[in-house]
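re: the backbone from monday

yeah here it is again, tokenized this time
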């Protein structure tokens, strides 16, 4: 179908449909070849196809200029009034505008214009388009979880009167096939988790294995990333336990030798630790050794060396925050960000996401990720600030606990509302940095590697969409996990 389509507009619709149905991984080379040709073309598109062309190329890593949207403005510099009732064009513009970079004010204007008008036209369109508009206003494509979006779009596309039934059937069959693989992976990881027995020994800690697997699915859901997904789930589950050990249970006297043991990665002084910490260290080192042996079979055991470095850096940031708390010290906003963008876990998880991906990841990529390059720092900012923006975050912490909002309020003498506006703007700017860093020529690091960091940022938008769904997963996250892991698509 891709080879024989002779109309650029039909070709773009086909590419977009394939991607949104979750089938992109089957046709990576064909889509890349098509986008390369489309990047060299220039057409007098209407707003719908101009926006689709822009979004597809930006998603593919092409730095297509945004000034072409100016032709859809009137003499006053505003988007034309006639566009307000074109639902398909508004939706396409809204999705494209979320690919914006710094300095592209026209795309910020586009989000406001399209988003505001979509709310009014949504009740006047076909059921499938209305569903897609509601989905976009809740979570635009750029910021969503690909697997969850594919499941949603299968339902939307099934109601589309001009759907391609061949593509729809393929998407359903593929979705269910991949779901069975995910179920098998989670079954095996759950057996490992139960045999590890740490949940009973660390009864104070959150048991979030399934939620951690959901997180891993957001980083990579494709079948060929099965091993990376398994490794990621195991390690992030152990990170979650370490986080709780530092944050809610261990005393400073206990945590100092615990921290030293992790820094040395040496079991020599383990007998000095409390039993619960000893159990954790033994499970941690054993898990790392098994991963190292597995990767050694293909000459990639060095991946674990980098992961250890990231893990020890994360442990150091946890201790820094404990020391702040013990002294009732309120850091400056800059001090807070310096530590909390590490303690949020995303620099370590960015490194972890590369472990197990095979030869596409090189030593250069690991050296790059450990420097916390702009895309990793932007994802870490999104992680930390989205967490702090949770309406319950300030209420749940005592007056001496640092959050970005509290530190910014104290530093700048502003109200909580003003601080929240500033933090929200920082999240928006971080997304613009990520969009810049995803352009093909932005870095010598393969876009496939950088995409893991992009996906990590997306998972924060998903997990903190309406609340902290990691700490309180019984609502929206539970429903999403059930949709992805339990219920197959009806064929």
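seq for it, each position gets an aa:
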């Amino acid at each position: 179908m891709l080879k024989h389509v002779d109309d650029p507009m039909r070709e773009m619709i086909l590419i977009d449909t394939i991607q949104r149905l979750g089938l992109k991984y089957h046709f990576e080379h064909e889509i890349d070849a098509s986008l390369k040709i489309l990047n060299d073309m220039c057409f007098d598109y209407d707003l719908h196809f101009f926006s689709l062309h822009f979004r597809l190329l930006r998603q593919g890593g092409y730095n297509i200029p945004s000034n072409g949207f100016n032709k859809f403005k009137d003499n006053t510099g505003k988007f034309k009034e006639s566009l307000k009732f074109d639902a398909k064009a508004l939706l396409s513009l809204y999705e494209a505008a979320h690919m914006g970079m710094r300095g592209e004010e026209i795309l910020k204007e586009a989000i406001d214009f399209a988003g505001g008008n979509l709310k009014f036209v949504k009740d006047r369109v076909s059921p499938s388009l209305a569903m897609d508009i509601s989905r976009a206003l809740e979570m635009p494509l750029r910021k969503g979880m690909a697997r969850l979006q594919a499941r949603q779009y299968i339902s939307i596309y099934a109601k589309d009167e001009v759907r391609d039934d061949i593509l729809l059937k393929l998407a359903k069959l593929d979705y269910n096939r991949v779901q069975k693989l995910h179920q098998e992976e989670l079954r095996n990881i759950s057996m490992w988790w139960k045999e590890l027995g740490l949940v009973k020994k660390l009864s104070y800690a959150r048991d979030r294995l399934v939620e951690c697997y959901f997180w891993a699915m957001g980083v990579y859901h494709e079948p060929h990333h099965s091993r990376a997904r398994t490794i990621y789930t195991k390690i992030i589950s152990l990170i979650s336990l370490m986080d709780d050990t530092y944050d809610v249970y261990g005393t400073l006297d206990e945590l100092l030798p615990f921290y030293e043991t992790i820094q040395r990665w040496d079991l020599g002084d383990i007998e000095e630790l409390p039993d619960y910490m000893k159990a954790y260290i033994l499970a941690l080192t054993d898990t790392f050794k098994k991963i190292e042996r597995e990767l050694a079979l293909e000459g990639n055991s060095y991946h674990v060396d980098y992961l250890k470095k990231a893990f020890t850096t994360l442990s150091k940031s946890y201790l820094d925050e404990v020391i702040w708390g013990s002294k009732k010290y309120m850091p400056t906003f800059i001090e807070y960000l310096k530590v909390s963008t590490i303690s949020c876990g995303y620099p370590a998880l960015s490194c972890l996401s590369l472990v197990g991906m095979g030869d596409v990841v090189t030593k250069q990529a690991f050296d790059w990720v450990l420097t916390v390059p702009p895309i990793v720092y932007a994802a870490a900012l999104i992680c930390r600030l989205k967490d702090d923006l949770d309406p319950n975050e300030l209420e749940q912490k005592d007056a001496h606990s640092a959050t970005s909002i509290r530190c910014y309020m104290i530093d700048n003498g502003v109200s909580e509302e003003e601080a929240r506006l500033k933090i929200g703007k920082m999240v928006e700017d971080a997304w613009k940095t990520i969009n810049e860093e995803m352009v093909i020529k932005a870095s010598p690091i393969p876009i496939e590697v950088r995409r893991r960091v992009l996906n990590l940022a997306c998972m924060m938008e998903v997990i903190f969409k309406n609340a902290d769904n990691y700490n309180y997963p019984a609502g929206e996250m539970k429903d999403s996990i059930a949709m992805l892991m339990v219920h197959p698509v009806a064929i």
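DSSP finds 23 helices and no strands in the chain. The domain at 8-169 is CATH 1.50.10.130 (Glycosyltransferase).
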